[in-house]
Amino acid sequence: MHYAEIADIYEKIEATTKRLEMTDLLVQLVKKTPRDLIDRVVYLTQGKLYPDFVNLEIGVAERLAIRALARASGWPEEKIEENIKQSGDIGETAQKFIEMKRQITFFQQPLTVNRVYDTLDKMARATGSGAVDMKTALLAGLLSDAKPKEAKYIMRTVTGSLRLGVADMTVLDALAIAYGGSKEARELIERAYNISSDLGRVARVLAYEGIEGIKRFHVIVGNPIRPMLAERLSSPEEILEKLGGKCIAEYKYDGERVQAHKKGDEVTLFSRRLENITDQYPDAVKLLRTHVKAEEAILEGECVAIDPETGEMQPFQELMHRRRKYGVEKAMEDYPVSLFMFDALYVDGKDLTLEPYPVRRRFLEEVIEESERIKIAKSIITGDVKELETFFLEAIEDGCEGLVCKSIHGDSVYQAGARGWLWIKYKRDYKSEMTDTVDLAVVGAFYGRGKRAGTYGSLLLAAYNPENDTFETVTKCGTGFTDEDLMKLPELMKKHVVEHKHARVNSLIEADVWFEPAVVIEVLGAEITLSPIHTCAMDLVRKGCGLAIRFPRFTGNYRLDKAAEDATTVNEIAEMYQRQLKKIAEV
Ligand code: AMP
Predict the structure, then answer these.
(1) Ligand 1 centroid to 257 CA: how many Å?
(2) What is the Å distance from ligand 1's center to 52 Cα?
(3) For the segment 383-419, what is each residue's pLDDT rounded down to a tens digit?
(4) How far apart are CA 456 and CA 512, in angstroms?
């Protein structure tokens, strides 16, 4: 097949804005394409050489493209550059300069699709010191044999500016019409795409095996599955009703979604957008390699930044420090991650995507050996509105965004690539941001682990309630302490240790060590939230709930000038909560 045939159709596709016409043109193209080329043609039509999850790009900078065009056309680079400034399109400029070619190429070979594809593939794979020269020579060679129109599309393809506007779904429509015909075929083809993310592979199977082959299509370790997405509702009543009265509610962790593909010792991680992000998370890779008890598996989970000292979850922004190509080792130390797994899509030869969620979760539980750093998403099964609400507040306080409530019925399959009502997220539509610091009394402590063994890992802090003369817990704080603070804390607190919870302390949490309220420290948090666990302002804002400070950080100030009774009062905290309560934009 000649590349000119493709270029002709590209030109027509470019001229239309109607999706139906575009589909017709693609159907023509698909029908014209010999089956051994169909995957290549499909990728090329989208300006690519491979499916998105393959980490290879043609990667030609404008400079290099101009040099190759100069070589092929015999015109100086400056002239070409000038023309690009006018046209604003390197493709058009290439078309023009190939038309005005100064030297005639004898024995011009017509370009075949295979030659174009193979050359671009070589360019994509060229690495190392000679790569730029090699790419320039390869591109110049192609352009020398190209007709003006072909040059236009080759140039746009290599510089990543083809943009015919052919969406994945339009290609699927065209494939269905060309090979399948029926509406049922369209659905099967789309599912094949959703579980492989590879239009080329779908097209190839259709071309060789027809719709029967698509029916046999299955997931493969290494081909990412397009993620299932959640709908959203804002009340537990609605959620339970929608999910048939009962559901499994899971913590909605606030991190980055990862789809892990494991084959033996090899682990690949894909992002929600199906980019290969394996290199960003060597620690997560290692966790999966050592804690997944299956030869082959495709599992999903959320990768969350944690405080290296306390093991507590950090807000999503902290994870952004891990989005880097260089200095990964250092970033890994400063911003370690934990994994919270929530789905199993494939385990040792078994495609689970059409199994109901309880079955998939059972597989997940069997396959994951939990540890400090890799866990299965915390969950409850419930049909009770109150229980759901309480679990939601716990999730928020623990640093999560809310809950994802999932159907547990027989039809609760993994809806690859779709947003549906089998998963419903429950997030807050308000937020109470903290701008001021608070002074809190230290009423208890928890022993540290790891680097903090032998000292305290975090402190239980309380606000003062002058009406009852009690101290009501409002947060657990383990962040912001220097090594020096940690050394001197046990010493500083020693004289205040009491055997049991102090009579004036009102706490539902069991601390490892209790103190009489005496020492006050200054703390800044991210926000104040409702809490079923902390007793501060209990029942004041909502029945059965207290208030808590989320993501607290010690500012470094010991308020030695303050007595415990001078700590921020529970009413002040309630006021801060009310005052700062503001609607945030619906996400
Ligand atoms: P959203 O991004 O707000 O549409 O919420 C969906 C995202 O929540 C998913 O893509 C996951 O990254 C994330 N998530 C966190 N915890 C869970 C969980 N337990 N189940 C499913 N998704 C979760």
Answers:
(1) 7
(2) 22
(3) 999 999 999 999 998 989 999 999 999 999 999 999 9
(4) 9
Percent of the chain with pLDDT over 70: 98
pLDDT band at 561 (very low <50, low <70, confident <90, very high): confident
Q: Please report, for the chain, how many H helices and E strands are present, in that order.
A: 19, 23
Q: Cα–Cα distances in Å, from 382 out to 402, 405, 530, 573?
A: 16, 10, 21, 32
Buried b (16+ CB within 10 A) or exposed e, 21-53: ebbbbbbbbbeebeeebbbbbbbbbbbbbbbbb
Do the beta carbons of residue 493 and residue 484 sit within 8 Å? Answer: no
pLDDT the model gives residue 587: 38
Q: Which distant-in-sequence residues (6+ apart) come within 8 Å of 506 by Cβ?
A: 462, 465, 468, 470, 471, 472, 473, 535, 538
Cα–Cα distance between 577 and 574 in angstroms, integer? 5
Mean pLDDT calculated for residue range 348-364: 97
Q: Which two tokens stand for residue 144?
A: 């020398």
Whether the CB of 395 sits within 6 Å of ligand 1: no
- Distance (Å, rounded) from C-alpha 555 to C-alpha 62? 50
Q: Which uninterrupted H or E stretch holds 128?
A: none
Strand partners, 249: 380, 405
Place of tokens 């308020």: 559
State the pairing for strand pair 419-427/229-232: parallel
CA dist., res. 252 & res. 400, Å (int)? 6
3-state secondary structure of 74: coil
Ligand 1 atom at minimal distance to the Cα of residue 406: 20
**In whole angstroms, what is the distance from residue 407 CA to residue 358 CA?**
9
Nearest in space to 200 (alpha carbons), one of 59, 55, 52: 52
The secondary structure of residue 495, as a DSSP letter, is T
Is residue 363 lining ligand 1, measured as CB closer than 6 Å?
no
Tell me if 342 CB under 6 Å of ligand 1. yes
Task: Centre a 10 Å sphere on the Cβ of residue 266 and count the other Cβ atoms it contains.
Answer: 13
What is the whole-number distance in angstroms between the Cα of residue 537 and the centre of ligand 1? Answer: 31
How far is 584 from 587, CA to CA, in rounded Å?
A: 8
Ordered structural domains, the chain, with CATH? 229-431 (3.30.470.30), 438-586 (2.40.50.140)
Residue with CA nearest ligand 1 atom 11: 257
Q: Pocket of ligand 1, candidates 404, 414, 584, 586: which has the most ligand atoms within 8 Å of its Cβ, to mutate?
A: 404
401 lines ligand 1 (CB under 6 A): no
DSSP state of 46: T
Pick from 583, 432, 437, 397: nearest CA to 522: 437
Helix (H, G, I), strand (E, B) or coil at 430: strand
Annotated catalytic sites, by residue?
252
Distance (angstroms) between ligand 1 centre and the Cα of 339 equals 13
Most confident option among 56-60, 375-379, 526-530: 375-379
- Our answer on whether the CB atom of 230 is closer than 6 Å to any ligand 1 atom is yes
Confidence of residue 582 (pLDDT cuts 50, 70, 90): low
Q: Is 377 near ligand 1, meaning CB less than 6 Å away?
A: yes
Best CA proximity match to 584, nearest among 273, 234, 195, 173? 234
Query: Ligand 1 atom closest to Cα of 252?
Result: 16
For residue 556, the CA-to-ligand 1 centroid distance in Å is 35
Length of the chain equals 587
